[in-house]
Amino acid sequence: MAWDTERTRRLLLEAAVHEFAERGPDGARVNAIAARAGINKERIYQYFGDKRGLFEAVLTDQLEQLAAASPLTADKAGDLAEYAGHVFDFHRTHPQFLRLMYWEGLQPQDGELPAESARASHYADKVAALAAAQQAGTLPRDVAPGYLLYAVAALAAWWFAAPQVVRMILGADTDDPDTLRAALVSLVRRLEVRN
């Protein structure tokens, strides 16, 4: 029987997402990831090199999933609220993503981050799409496009990043994610209004 390398790799990534989200890159254990995946731990070393390589692969994979779920291209940049809604939806269905980002942020920032240049290029493409929308007059120009992207990303993530704060501020309104999404889209629509 032929070994299904891609399936094995996918199972390890899926198991690692949960282990790293729960325990971080330092607290996660290779044995636990392998057991969760039902795969021999030696495959982790074969496919990813070491635990750090696996953490980097997990972050890269999750970021690619976010990019696929929430595209922001020049033709869509004028509808920033819809983009925010897609980012919100991703966070709702991938609650481990923000935890992974927090764990990454807690690591010493003394070197290049996993896939940093590719990630920076991806963000630069989104900023360029917003700049093009501003030039075309479909978005206001009073906020620089990089700041605009950052603000929308922060608004879309905060509901999930600090649910306890959201609950304390909004109370019962936080019980319905559709209400939260609608509020987010409404807020971002206000950012789209041209003066």
TrEMBL record:
Family annotation (PROSITE patterns): HTH_TETR_2 (PS50977)
GO MF term set: DNA binding
Domain HTH tetR-type, chain residue ranges per copy: 6-66
GO biological process: one example: regulation of DNA-templated transcription
DNA-binding region ranges: 29-48
Transmembrane regions listed in the UniProt entry: 147-170
Domain of life: Bacteria
InterPro entries from the UniProt entry: Homeodomain-like_sf (IPR009057), HTH-type_TetR-like_transc_reg (IPR050109), HTH_TetR (IPR001647), Sco4008_C (IPR041467), Tet_transcr_reg_TetR-rel_C_sf (IPR036271)
Keywords: DNA-binding, Membrane, Transmembrane, Transmembrane helix
Keyword Amino-acid biosynthesis on entry: no
Keyword Transmembrane: yes
Pfam families associated with the record: TetR_C_21, TetR_N
Protein's recorded name: TetR family transcriptional regulator
The species this protein was found in: Nocardia aurantiaca
